[in-house]
């Protein structure tokens, strides 16, 4: 009887898997075309969710979005069923398909799917142990929020911190996190947050490129700024001609480009501030998963490099370059030091750099693997390899931070007459009081030192 029950359950699972696979292939193909009409045509084979209204609705005149929306509750039921029967792998595949379909719908419908995914994250029984499903739900919840995406990521990482604890804080807090975020999955949810932040930093690099190039023209820069802020781009002057009229047009275009670049830089600084507000919570979370820590360092390096490039983009032009920009025959001059940039600098000094150095120190002070016997030798070898990777990664991170601060000092010098102080609150020498030690094979813990620690005194002297 028990064997028969297992066979029946296995058959039911196989049917569920087959149904999900068929649905995934059909919808993925339609969504891959980027055509909502194709998705609606596929879903018309399903009844609308409420059978009572099936005979009363004539869908021939309905918009494709309405046809798709009428079937979304089916996917909610399917996902809930798959999760309650522990079919986590199939649920992961279905979440990915639903997200692909939702991206073709209006923003309000996307947010409805986002809400659904967040609701599914509250399942407690049976406990979700499939980290792929947790990451898929986190990504779906955040990326379908529109302009509220970073707020959603902040919500997730705050719950992760509740579960695993805040770095340097032994106080027990009441956990109100969704059920899928527990000791076994929370750190991988933080990994997904880091990957999403990495995508935002890549977008920031593209926007900063528009600033450096002057947007490729006033219209392009204004369009980029409008895309960030959701506003209409500023207009630009007509084509430049020759003689006095051409000179006037060039000056008009230059002024429009300068306004667009200023608008774009302010929008970029505000967006970066939102990204770093999430990132600083991740840094202050007690993470121990090596994969997560490695990605965290990678994201921090990219963040500080982008910060340094943004600071450098504010440096005034000199000589012939400044004259050409003023005449409108070259890219517009750099944007002024606005309030958004000052706020960004203050956030980094107060909430990001100090916990970054604290996290580096905590990781480097973690006890090494025990040595002894065959297993001890292998563990020691792995420990040395990890230290070498850490030495390289942390040296790159420290260098990125120093480059950022170096550009701030250059800006202070350039704007000395205005009394600009961009290093207020930055504790440069005390923050760097650590050293990476990589012991050689068979040597004690004090043998050798990474380059990141060797030249620390010289950096502080500068």
UniProtKB/TrEMBL annotation:
<dbReference type="GO" id="GO:0070182">
    <property type="term" value="F:DNA polymerase binding"/>
</dbReference>
<protein>
    <recommendedName>
        <fullName>FANCI solenoid 4 domain-containing protein</fullName>
    </recommendedName>
</protein>
<feature type="compositionally biased region" description="Gly residues">
    <location>
        <begin position="235"/>
        <end position="251"/>
    </location>
</feature>
<feature type="domain" description="FANCI solenoid 4">
    <location>
        <begin position="260"/>
        <end position="436"/>
    </location>
</feature>
<dbReference type="InterPro" id="IPR029314">
    <property type="entry name" value="FANCI_S4"/>
</dbReference>
<feature type="compositionally biased region" description="Basic and acidic residues">
    <location>
        <begin position="453"/>
        <end position="462"/>
    </location>
</feature>
<dbReference type="InterPro" id="IPR026171">
    <property type="entry name" value="FANCI"/>
</dbReference>
<dbReference type="GO" id="GO:0006281">
    <property type="term" value="P:DNA repair"/>
</dbReference>
<dbReference type="Pfam" id="PF14678">
    <property type="entry name" value="FANCI_S4"/>
</dbReference>
<feature type="region of interest" description="Disordered">
    <location>
        <begin position="443"/>
        <end position="462"/>
    </location>
</feature>
<feature type="region of interest" description="Disordered">
    <location>
        <begin position="232"/>
        <end position="252"/>
    </location>
</feature>
């Amino acid at each position: 009887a028990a064997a028969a029950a297992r066979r029946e359950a296995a058959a039911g699972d196989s049917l569920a898997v087959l149904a999900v696979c068929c649905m995934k292939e059909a919808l993925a193909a339609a969504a891959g075309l980027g055509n909502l009409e194709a998705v609606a045509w596929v879903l018309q084979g399903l009844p609308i969710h409420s059978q009572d209204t099936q005979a009363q609705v004539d869908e021939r005149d309905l918009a494709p979005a309405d046809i798709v929306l009428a079937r979304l509750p089916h996917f909610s039921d399917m996902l809930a069923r798959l999760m309650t029967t522990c079919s986590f792998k199939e649920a992961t595949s279905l979440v990915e398909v639903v997200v692909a379909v939702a991206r073709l719908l209006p923003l309000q419908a996307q947010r409805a799917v986002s809400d659904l995914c967040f609701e599914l994250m509250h399942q407690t029984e049976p406990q979700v142990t499939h980290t792929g499903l947790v990451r898929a739900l986190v990504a779906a919840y955040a990326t379908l929020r529109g302009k509220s995406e970073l707020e959603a990521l902040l919500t997730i990482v705050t719950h992760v911190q509740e579960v695993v604890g805040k770095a340097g804080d032994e106080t027990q807090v009441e956990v109100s996190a969704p059920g899928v975020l527990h000791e076994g999955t929370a750190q991988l949810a933080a990994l997904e947050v880091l990957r999403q932040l990495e995508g935002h930093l890549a977008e920031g690099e593209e926007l900063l490129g528009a600033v450096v190039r002057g947007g490729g023209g006033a219209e392009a820069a204004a369009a980029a700024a409008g895309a960030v802020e959701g506003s209409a781009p500023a207009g630009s002057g007509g084509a430049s001609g020759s003689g006095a009229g051409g000179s006037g047009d060039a000056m008009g275009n230059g002024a429009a480009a300068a306004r667009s670049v200023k608008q774009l830089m302010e929008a970029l600084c505000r967006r970066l501030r939102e990204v770093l507000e999430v990132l600083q919570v991740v840094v202050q979370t007690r993470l121990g998963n090596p994969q997560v820590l490695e990605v965290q360092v990678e994201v921090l390096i990219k963040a500080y490099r982008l910060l340094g490039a943004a600071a450098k983009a504010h440096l005034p032009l000199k000589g012939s370059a400044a004259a050409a920009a003023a005449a409108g025959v070259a890219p517009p001059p750099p944007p002024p030091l606005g309030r958004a940039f000052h706020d960004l600098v203050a956030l980094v000094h107060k909430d990001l750099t100090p916990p970054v150095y604290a996290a580096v120190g905590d990781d480097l002070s973690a006890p090494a693997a025990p040595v002894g016997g065959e297993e001890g030798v292998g563990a020691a070898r792995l420990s040395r390899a990890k230290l070498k990777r850490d030495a390289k990664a942390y040296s790159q991170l420290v260098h990125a931070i120093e480059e950022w601060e170096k550009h701030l000092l250059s800006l202070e010098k350039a704007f000395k007459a205005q009394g600009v102080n961009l290093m207020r609150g930055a504790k440069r020498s005390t923050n760097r009081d650590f050293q990476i030690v990589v012991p050689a094979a068979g040597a004690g813990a004090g043998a050798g030192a990474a380059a990141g620690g060797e030249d620390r005194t010289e950096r502080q002297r500068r």
